Amino acid sequence: MRILAFLALATVLGAQEVRSPRVERLVAAVDPARMEATVAKLVSFGTRHTLSDQASPTRGIGAAQRWLAGQFEGLTRLPGSRLRPFEDRFTQPIAPRIPAPVVITNEGVVLPGTDPARAKEAIVLTGHYDSRATDVMDAVSDAPGADDDGSGTAMTLELARVMAAERPAVTVYFVAVSGEEQGLYGSTHLAKRLKAEGVDVLAMTSVDIAGNTEGSNGVKDNVYARLWSEGVPAFETPAQRRLRLALGTENDSPSREWARYVQRLGERYVENLRLLVMLRRDRIARGSDHMSFTAEGYPAACLREAEENYDRQHQDVRTVNGRSYGDDLAHFDAAYAAKLARALCASLATLAAAPAPVRDLVLGGAVSPDTRLRWTLPPDPRVKGLLLFRRRADGVAWQRIQRLPVSDHLVIPDVVPDSYVFALATVDAEGNESLPVGPTGLE
């Protein structure tokens, strides 16, 4: 009886994964040649160090910023474009790696949401356009920054172009941030600004170092990429901590769910791609702009290539004993970067169009052979079904996804809640899925 009940409930991963023609069209529109041209132009500015020349028309951070502003502004004039220019300019006072006040400018565009009930909800995509040489304070030497992070900047610009005419339910920000190499200053200001404006960021992604396919160890890999996200939220409240300890959900933060979402949607729409959900906030003792957003309590993840080459990161351009150093254009793999852009495009386009998630998911059934779940449905008429995510408590990835009719409760017979982890998402008629929501209360 137990086995029959389990098999009746279980739906293997992939069975419900409908591919939307709209999302397929957007994914197919990603152009690697455009991305390569963007990276080449960024490299041409010589250095994009945060403290470099802001007045020169051809060299330094100022020239790069003005060029990017023009590129983003041009996207607002595309046929059918709904994009609006966005600029976040501020003066960063003296701080670590900032010896004197400096103007930092984040450039981008905003794609407005269309659901008035969700006017303050948003998704954010960033790549950082500043670069650095070996000495983090060297604002003069060449610092091409093709992969770090011309790749992320090119992806941000390209996905803004691809999605320019979309009518998402929630707002999407596409922003090239600066000041990352000096201490995440641009993204920190952006995250704090959105928080102050009352924007509820549903998910944020930093694309940082995502265009190289040959690692320092000689391994060549154009199939895998890595998604980094925090497990335990850095700033959880005491109540959230008590619930996490009671449920054992150290691997189920909102950031981790966003990373899983990008993996699932990315692999659904892009062939020959494996996205690895890394169970770390970022690489050991390193970080990126997603950390600025988790510091404000927002779900955020970082997308990176699988094999990093440290000869091409934070290095002066030089050759020593026949070994070349420097982050130059020759080692940027546009086809690989475009593959990652397509995966992220599928995720952004799906989540931005998805209905609102359920609220107040309550888990019951402790000291019982049955699992009980109840929740509050959102007042969103586009909700046409629910997706129940489940995995055994010894697993880290979702193992079963079941399509449910619209309802506000569920009893799963002969499934002991102690042994499983659950989450619930809403889905519309096209198959757009909200982010899965884990239990926020216990019976």
- CATH classification class of the largest domain: Alpha Beta
Helix and strand element order: HHHHEEEHEHHEEHHEHEEEHEEEEEEE
What's the Cα radius of gyration?
Answer: 22 Å
* Architecture per CATH nomenclature, i.e. the level-2 architecture of the largest domain: 3-Layer(aba) Sandwich
Biggest sheet character: 8 strands, mixed
Overall geometry comes to globular
Question: What does this molecule look like?
Answer:
The structure is a single chain. The chain has eleven helices and 17 strands. The protein is an alpha/beta fold and 443 residues long. A hairpin with a 7-residue loop joins strand 13 (385-392) and strand 14.
Entry keywords:
2 domains; about 450 residues; Immunoglobulin-like; alpha/beta; Aminopeptidase
What does this entry show, briefly?
The protein is an alpha/beta fold.
How is this fold's topology laid out?
Layout: H1 2-9, H2 21-29, H3 32-43, H4 61-75, E1 84-92, E2 102-111, E3 121-128, H5 146-162, E4 171-177, H6 180-183, H7 185-196, E5 200-207, E6 224-228, H8 238-247, H9 254-269, E7 274-278, H10 290-294, E8 300-305, E9 318-320, E10 323-325, H11 334-353, E11 359-364, E12 371-376, E13 385-392, E14 400-404, E15 409-412, E16 420-427, E17 441-442
Parallel strand pairs: 3-4, 3-5, 5-8, 6-7, 11-17
Antiparallel strand pairs: 1-2, 2-4, 6-8, 9-10, 11-12, 12-15, 13-14, 13-16
Helix pairs in contact: 2-11, 3-5, 3-11, 5-11, 9-11
